[in-house]
Amino acid sequence: MTKCELCGKQGIKWIGKHVSNQHSHEITPRDYYHRFILMSEEVPNCESCGKELVFQLISNPYSRFCSKECRYSNHSNILSELHKNQTYIGTSHFNTYNSLESTREKRSEDARSRALDKNSNGFNSEYSMRVRNRDNLKSRSDVKELRSLYLIKFTDKLKIGSTNDLNRRLGVYPEHEVVKIITSDSHSIIDLEFDTLVKFRNHTLPDESNTFYTEYLPLDILDEILDHLSSY
User: Which range in 66-80, 162-176, 200-214 is most confidently predicted, on average pLDDT?
Assistant: First the structure.
């Protein structure tokens, strides 16, 4: 279930159908997807020829390939690699390919690379992680309930977050300075947290294993963050 960003209707099962039936005079499903879901005009390219892909449905926006020819061409490349490595086993060749250690390592490395690429809006990037977190929080919260955004100052960094139980959350950090608290309806606060982390995503700090970015930010941008939050 989701919410329409145009009319505000909640609990929509098929957002693509809703947009087509109720808002066809305002926006196309493709533009809705890029504006409100992906929040980027970036269009993926065919994995075989590199051609820009054509939008399909909001629920399944883009295929991996632009045509049957490119899909079959990619299969041929896989088969060639399997033959070269002498790992082709009849019709199960794709399972064999996917089980190759080199394939798994490359996919893991690609995922790590996207997760740490500040300029990427694609799958597994910091931006897509923020979008998923925002949408998950909204789906589990009542728009009428109160939620608070907090900014905490540590000795060496800042932390921004939001909660519907402020006392319990701040109790986790009793010895650190609470610099800012903003309380409003849950969806507005969730959006504000998302907007702030996206605005300052060039500064967000990685976790200890350096595999993804956190809600921690450097101390030297405190004034910039406060200036951003002052308009809310």
Answer: 162-176
Confidence of residue 206 (pLDDT cuts 50, 70, 90): confident
Containing structural domain, residue 20 = 1-62
Over range 183-200, report the average pLDDT. Answer: 93
CA-nearest of 25, 32, 28, 44 to 2 is: 32
Global model pTM greater than 0.70: no
Task: State the Cα–Cα distance between residues 148 and 185, nearest whole angstrom.
Answer: 8
Backbone φ and ψ of 154, nearest 5°: -95, 180
Instruction: Decide if 118 is inside a domain.
Output: no
**Structural domain includes residue 116:** no
Number of domains in the chain: 2
Length of the chain: 232
Predicted confidence (pLDDT) per residue in 153-178, tens digit:
999 999 999 999 999 988 888 889 99
Taking the CA atoms of the chain, what radius of gyration do you get in angstroms?
22
Q: Parallel, antiparallel, or unpaired for β 216-217 and 146-153?
A: unpaired
**Three-class DSSP category at 145:** coil
Tokens of 203: 């500064």
Cα 214 vs. chain centroid, distance in angstroms? 13
Residue 158 burial by Cβ neighbours in a 10 Å radius (0-12, 13-18, 19+): buried
Cβ neighbours, 10 Å, residue 178: 12
In 3D space, the residue among 36, 38, 34, 41 whose CA is nearest the CA of residue 7 turns out to be 36
53 half-sphere exposure, CB direction, 13 A CA radius: 23
